[in-house]
Hints:
278 residues; alpha+beta; Immunoglobulin-like; Lipocalin; eleven-stranded antiparallel β-sheet; eight-stranded mixed β-sheet; globular; Lipoprotein_YbaY-like; Pilotin; signal; DUF306_Meta_HslJ; Putative lipoprotein
Amino acid sequence: MRMLAACLALVGALVAGGVSMAATDVIRGSATYRERIALPPGTTLEVELLDVSKADAPSVLIASDSIPVLRQVPIAFALAYDPALIDEKNRYALTAKLMHAGGVLFRSTAITPVLTHGAEAGAAPEILLVQSEEPAPEAEPATEPDDAAAKPAEGGEAAAAAAEVPADMAAVAGTWIASEINGAATDEKVVSWLKLSDAGRAQGQGGCNSFTGTYKLENGTLTFGPLASTRRACPETQMSQEQRFFAALGAVKAARLESGDLVLTDLAGEPLVQLRKK
């Protein structure tokens, strides 16, 4: 009963906070590989749902998710998608890859059929990954700072250097992990994260449920469009943080960058969510 109550409270918070609950379905599955290799910290699993109906044309992206990897394989995922985009006559498939520091560690080499044309309804697909042959990205050589850069700013100049208004979506693009919500530190065992693209797409996870949608950024003003979320119940600690995270996102009106962190604020500039770059 407590879990059900927490789930209902989450739905109420989403509506009250302005985050609409668009109709979504979810594909739950896992990704794994056979090699006995441990994944390094900071690895992410990227999963895509594609329309692969036309053999002579590029696949069409239906949904995607980027999931911070917190354990070794198999890695579970819950990919939310809009059922209105699914045509029973078409063919759909999943692909996945494990990313670290901008490079691909493992990737799927075969598509995994789902949803239509005999794909087992309700089955949890397992995506088999193979080790990538792509070279790891090279680190940029360190450079010595010049005197002007090394000299610490003073007074108001220090505040100006520490905070800036993001110029465009490219400035906030990436995966961000929430470190504070409404001024309170997040639970270190519960990960609430947000991924923003430079094309206006937003997705992430509140701590239990995945979400996807859009956002707009102009002259420091940032607002989220309707965010579609899955609706599963989790332990109370996860649901509590997720409720606060979703409610805060629904109230966001602006953004600024402070010492590498993304700070989402209300109209008065009060911090609602502080996130660190993954």
